[in-house]
Amino acid sequence: MYRSTIKACYLGNFIGALTCNLAPLLYVTFMHEFGITFEQAGRLTLLNFFTQIVADLVFSRPVDRWGVRPFITLGHLLAFFGFLLLALAPRLFPHNTYLGLMVATVVYSIGGGLFELLLSAIVQAIPNDSKEKAMSLLHSFYAWGFIVVVLGTTVGLRFFNRSNWMYVVLLWSLLPLINFFVFLRVPLAPAVSEEHRTKIRELLSSRYFLFVLLGIAVGGATEVSMSQWTSAFVESSLGLPKEVGDLVGLCLFALLLGTTRAIYGSYGDKFPLYKAMLFGSVLCIVCYLVAALSPYPMISLIACIFSGLGSSLLWPGSVVNGANRFPLAGSSLFAFLAAGGDAGAAFGPWLIGLIADVSPNLVRIAPWLSSLSLQESALRSGMLIGTIFPILMVIFLRRMHRLDEGRRAS
To answer: Which range, of 8-12, 57-61, 82-86, 113-117, averages the lowest pLDDT?
Structure first.
């Protein structure tokens, strides 16, 4: 009965990847064409995810009151119009194109926030005995979307020429328009009734939930910081061609991200989620350090790629942890989790861009990197600071595990 709904959710998460990752593929183009800085590029990512946070929190109550369908269709419309504004920004804002980029980012990011809030909730509400598998498969489509966005954008830029990037954006805008019409008619499972719903104060008073919230924030920062900056990192810090960063770095990163989620979606019951997330966090610590400090560009690139494996379960795993512990929380749970993940996804890439601007010499303290130019060392320095995110994830996972053990023992 709900097969078409699940497929629409998969495409929705695919479009969610578009709202988060299309603009970063164009950051270096924007920097050359409009003269923006690393920090300004990172600020677009910050704005993207901050807007999603606001959307997550603002729309959670209306969704509980009026249902999912009006808001999931609104999300697709806003994504469509946001991409139109992005493509037309140089013409609509000829004297301050960066302002136009920011306006477009806000519009399509509200759509992205609605995707974050609603798609997991829609899948969670569908009668199914394997919520972990369903959620992991849903999030795997974010990764597949990531890959297709990278490939399609790279091919489009080569076909249209890099200076005609706006035509690529216009083509991508068709996807949310198509899925808008799909969501007008697919069946949706009934939501949890008001009288049975877990109260917000009960969520916020739970230490376990607060650690889940902190965990999804640093998990989002771990995943998105690497995905947002790999293209620019490979081109500006490693001195490799943009096509290598996009087609090799980003695509393989996303391939590991999606494949791991899909495999866990099929066989996850054989391997505890806690151990999988802990292993992934430790792997990400290693990957961030190697990306920042390796004297060999290809080794740094490989580290960027394998962080996709490490970060693959941090965000969806946190959603599952929260949903399993509070199955009757309704949209409020997904709003807080989406806002937490988006907060990390906003802050992480912005912090890396900020460090690249204000402390670009940080990694040159290492003797083997002392000969790097300022441009080569800038994003490496940002990546080095980014190591703090998976370190914090390990700490929060350990605390959650202790709380779980204490609950089972009592």
So the answer is: 57-61
Give the list of residues 6+ apart from residue 267 with CB closer than 8 angstroms, or none: none
Rounded Cα distance between 114 and 70, Å, is: 11
Computed over every residue of the chain, the mean pLDDT equals: 86
CB 37 within 8 A of CB 140: no
Query: What phi and psi, each to the nearest 5 degrees, are found at residue 359?
Result: -135, 60
Tokens, residue 18: 């578009």
120: Cα separation from own chain's centroid: 14
Task: Check: CB of residue 352 under 8 Å from CB of residue 232.
Answer: no
pTM: 0.79
**Which amino acid is it at 372?**
L
Angle CA 78–81–83, to nearest 5? 105
Q: Which residue has the tokens 């008001």?
A: 194
Residue 131 tokens read as 């919520």
**φ/ψ (deg, to 5) at 193:** -70, 155
Alpha carbon distance 142, 399 (integer Å): 28
Contacts of 237 (CB under 8 A, 6+ apart): 300, 375, 376, 377, 378, 379, 380
**DSSP-assigned states of every residue in 81-97:** HHHHHHHHHHHHSTT-H
What tokens does 153 get?
């954008």
Q: Do the beta carbons of residue 78 and residue 135 sit within 8 Å?
A: no
Helices (H) and strands (E) in the chain, counts: 18, 0
Q: Which amino acid, residue 266?
A: S
Q: Look up residue 292 and give its two tokens.
A: 């920042």
Taking a C-beta distance cutoff of 8 angstroms, is the pair 118, 75 a contact?
yes
362 backbone dihedrals φ, ψ, rounded to 5°: -55, -45
Q: What is the pLDDT of residue 384?
A: 93
Alpha carbon of 120 to those of 72, 238, 248, 293, 335: distances in Å? 12, 37, 30, 37, 10
**CATH entry 1.20.1250.20 includes domain 3-409:** yes
SS3 content of the chain, % helix, strand, coil (to 5): 85, 0, 15
